[in-house]
Structure formats: C-alpha cells, structure tokens
Fold Regulator of chromosome condensation (RCC1) repeat protein.
Amino acid sequence: MTTPGDSRGFKWHWLGVAGLALASALACEVSSGGRHSERPDADGGGGSDKGSRGAPTPSALAAGTGHACVLRESGAVSCWGANAAGQLGDGTTVDRSNPVTVQGLGDARQLALGRSHTCALRASGAVSCWGANDRGQLGSGTEISASRPSAVRGLSDAKLVAAGGDHTCALRQNGAVVCWGNNSDGQLGNLTRTTWTEPAQIRGLVDAIGLVAGERHTCVLRQTGGGICWGANDKGQLGDGTTTGHERPSSVVDMAGLIGLAAAGARTCGFTAQSVYCWGEDDDGRPSPRPRKVAEGSQNDGIVELELGPEHACLRHQSGTARCWGQNRDGRLGDGSFDSKSRPSPVKLGSVRDLALGERFSCALRADNEVACWGDDAGGALGQGDAGSEGGAARTGVQRVVNLDDATALVSGDGFSCATRKTGAVLCWGRNDLGQLGDGSGDGSRAMPAPVAGVSDGVALTAGSAQACVVRKSGGVMCWGANDMGQLGRSPGAPIVKPNAIPKLDDATAVTLGDGHGCALRRSGSVYCWGSDAEGQLGDGAGSRGGTVVQLADATTLSSGRAHTCALRRSGEVMCWGANNQGQIGNGAGAAQLKTPVQVPVSVANLSDAAEIAMGPEHGCARRRDGKAACWGRNDAGQLGSGTESSVWTSRVPVKGLAGVSTLAVGSVHACAVAGGRLSCWGDNTAGQGGYVGGSATIPRSSVQGLDVASLALGRDHSCARLRSGEVACWGSNEYGQLGDGGRMVSATPLEVAGL
C-alpha cells in the first residue's frame, strides 16, 4: 500500500447508506475509510503507536448511518455510536459514545458498515458480519441478528466487501461478485427480488476490480473501464439516463477514466484525479440520471479519496487537505459553520489520511493518527464519551421531554413536536428552519420546548410536515410554519414564523394539515378546506383554493396525509378525498384509477365501524369499534402491519395480531398502537422510531414499555407519547432536538474521539 502522499495512493470506499469501495486494478492494496476501510501493509506509512494512550495505531476508518469503526494496524477493530441492533460488535445493544472493541476479531483487513450492520474482511479471505439481520444482510443463513461477529457462509476468498442499507456484497479474488441480504429492488443482481441469507453469485460478472453499495443499489468498476450498476433507480442512481431499475448488471455507467466510485443513499459518484461526477438524487431530492460534474481538484493537488453521505460528500487531496459540501444543518461539513454548501469547503483540520462519512456526521483519521469527528452526536456518533450528548444518543431509548408535565394534547411533524398545556399555552421543540416552532425566529432548532408566540388558550392542535395550527378556546384557528402552497390560509409565500389567524374559521372545533393544504371541522359537522387543490385535496370538486367539502355534514374527526384527507363520520364510516396514487383513499380503486385524484369524498371500502383514524403521507389506519385495527395505502416498509411489504393496498387490510386497541397513530412510514395496555409499532425503524431493536417490521412489534400512554404522535423518524401523568416521552432520531430532552449535541468543527 502506498502512503497518502504517493500519487497512486487512491483509496476505494463504500459506505452502506453512504459508500465507496474500490480496488485499483494496478496497484497497491486498498486502504479505506467511509463505510469501508482496509488496513495497509506494515510498511505503508501507517505511523507509530499512539504513545501515551498505549493503543495500537488506527490505520483506517469506516462509518455507517449512525455508527463508526476504526481498523487498527493489529487487525483489531473498535466501534462507537448507535448500537440498537448490535452493530458495534461488543455483545450488547447499548449505544456507546466511547469506542468499544469488537469481540473475537483480531485479523481484520477491511471494514464495511451499513445502516445497522457491520462486516469485516479477514486476513484469510473470510468475511464476518454483525448487527441487524432482518433481511439476511449478515450472510449467516438465518435472519437472526448478532451482536458479535458471525461468519458469512461459504465465502473464503473475498478481497473486498461492501455494505448497503441492508444488503452486502463481496468481490472475490477471481473478479466475481457475490451478494446477500435485502433484494426488494434487485440490488443483489441475481435476476430475482427475493431476500438471500447466504451469498449468491452474479452471473456473467468476472472482471470486477471495485465494488460500491448504496442504500438500494450496487455498482462495480470493471477491469475494462467504466462502471456497471443494478438495483433501485428511482432517482437515476444507476446513471443510465433513465429511472428504471434493473435486477441484473446491465446498466453501464459510461465514464471512461474513472479511478473510483462512491455510492450513498440514492446517488452515485465517480472521480478522476481532477474531477468528481455524480448522478442520482440531487440536492433538491430530484432524479438526476446522468453524470454531472460537482467538484474539481487541481493539477498540483489531485483527488485521492471521495466519501459520500446521503446528503453530503467529502474529498481528500493528495496533500492531505479535506473538503466537504452538501447539507450542513448539523455541522457535518466541518468548516465551522452550519451553512450548506454547493461547492467543496475546507474542513478545519490538518493533514488527513482517511475519511469516513455517516448519515449526519463525518470523521477523519489525521496524519498524527488521531481520529476526529464532527456533525450530529446522535447515538454517540462523535465518540465524545462523557462530554457527548445522552439526549442526542437516544434512538430506541425513551427520553422525557424536559419542563413539560401537564400536556393535554400532542402532535408531531417532520422533525418537530408541539403540545398544549393545561393553561392553554402551546410549546414546540425540534426543527425550525421553516418557522414550524412558531417562536418568531424561523431558524435553527430547539432541543427543549419553547412557547409559541401569542397563544395562551389553545384547545386543539395539528401538525403537517412543516407547519402547525391551534384551535383557540376563544374561537378561531391560528397557524405557523411553511406556507409555500397556501396551506396556512394565506396567499402562497414565505414561511410564517409567528401564529397568524385563518379567516372565516371562528366556529372550528378541530383542524388538520397536509403538506400543502388544510381542513377544519366546524361545529355543524361540515368540513372546510384551503390551500393547494392540485390533487383534489380540497374535496369540493371545483379545483378552487378553498371551499366546503361536499357530501359531508356529520364529520366527527379529520386526519390528513400529504395530499389527501379523511373524515370519520358519526356512523363509523370513513370518507376520503385527494391524491390516490398509493391507494391512500382506500376505496378499492384499480391500478388504472390510481393516477386520478379523487376530488369529492368517497368511502373507504369495507370499513363502517371506525372509532379513530390516523393518516400518514400516503397511507392510513383506523381503530375499529371491536378493538382491532386496519390500514390501507402505501406499504413499501410494512407500514400497514399486514405481514407483507406489498407496495400498495387500495382497500383496508387488518393489522396482524392486534386486539383491544385503545389508541393508534401514524407517522411518515411507521405506525404505533396501544393494545391491551402495551405499545406496539410497525413499519420503518431506521432511526429507532419504532422503539424496538432491528429494522423495519411488517407486523406489530413490542415497542418501549413502562409508559402509561394517553395518546401518541408520530413524525417522520421520531415518535412521542403523551402520558396520563401529563408528561411527554419521545424516542427515535434526535437530529433536530425533536426528542425534547435538551441534550442534542452537534459540532461544526472536528472533535477528537475519546479513547483512541
């Protein structure tokens, strides 16, 4: 292996949820950071031991979604950060803000970290993995998670390993590639969509020299030049000019001269010594299926390493200088600011040997063998030990919202929550970039509840993705937050950072918000809606900007998704209107009808006894009078609780195994219910929002216990419960301080990892 100063010293990486991995056809052994790392040879300029600390010298870094690992020259591995699935390999599922040694592993040559699992290439060519295994991503022949290294079955000649979100691939010595784990988008490249718990070889691929894995896709660099990709392509991440996915390596990335690839989330990048090209999801979340130049090196200081996170990227130059760009709301770019950058910005750090990027944090191995990390400390990802944040570390652990013990109502949006107090005051906490906390600032975020300006008599609350409203005891509705589509009852425009009254709603008793529209329930039982009507979400059949929903005069409850709304009638019937692209109206529409919005209310099929309803962006659930639950709509993460991940259900299906349901709630891609006094959740759990260990669940799983729950409020990747005591407890992601415990830590400048 060449030293970082050698012009041949390119590092190949992959990052699971973010990743980069490549093996040079010519040269040198591979060293790596990011989701993948490899130990250099003893003469590779790795540096001396760390003196006073007495620990073996770190030789490479790797990072997963919320955890990171360091590979030492001895072959031992230490990890820190999120550990809900045992991905740190220390035999526990406890998050660690100090590095812990992976048990039973002393001969590692390279690491690959996925969303919630970790793999190591061993000196023999065998591969060991540990952590989440709900999709078979550990390759052990089972779907049983492991908190200690477990051998991948039938693999003894690997030279590289790459970890995707919940799939894994390995490059064999003969140039062949094998993959295992989740295959829902064809990311294993074996012409099926079936999960594989053991390695399966990709037919016809025998000349691979590099390997990368994104969240749901995989790419290789071939000896003949250029790249081949397969798997999900909804954002153009395969780089073939389309957004059509492939179950086999047939999508050629025509980028001659590439020396490395990187994959993260739904995007892919390739680099030469002078330029970086990317394709897939762009900075605005839109598909970009053709390569575009995003960064440049210089003639005198070429690019030798590229690392990707889902929303940010970093590169290392031959001189050791590191530069980063992309999303920076938590300081993950390391340039001392919280401002996002569209062009590479220098990291405030000296010479760097290795880089590793997680979802919301970054790490570097410095030339002096110190490891430094920056960004969001959620789960202890920055490795700060006692100096870090217990609040930011919370994933599946429950955090009590501080200074709030008399909540009477609770709602959650995308990264924020709000509650009313017995006094009628409203408090909000979490994300605030669009004024969703209503405190008048419209910037930053708040890790502790803060009063909403000018509201002292709130009786009912609602939250959309980035906006909220309160119904006042004195009459009327006041709203704040995003208003780009007129969803706050005003002309579309800039965010409204303080509560503003919506006209003509003095008789409102409840209100609900979608992404771009809102609806109010009046004392008469009629429903009035406003905002965008692009998908029929106003329900008046007129394509207007506001009006009374036709055919409804006896509604008792409202709930909105992204662009649809449902009303519960006194009879127990549920009626919905608006977008139906994922079957969220629940009327049993055929595939051809899903493209057509439903502009007036129609009944949810086979549901006449609902007692409670809750809508997610594109799915909904109902508690029935017999104590059972039913859901309908989008189901790509098992959010309907039906035991499958079928993409769409256009009529209601029963939630399996639930009886005696007393309350339920729906988040973006997950749902929770209290049944028989116990809390259960299902659907997406990538941020711990389900409150259990492991990945997504297609049937209800036991969630956090010991809570006397009065009501639930679910956001995109966090969940909260209002307790009968008046306290509020939250769990899941704490990226914006939405757990409300006051402990979120972020750093815009690098901090040394404790104990390395």
Helices lie at 390-393. Residues 18-43+54-388 form a domain with the Methylamine Dehydrogenase; Chain H fold (CATH 2.130.10.30). The first strand starts at residue 18 and ends at 20.
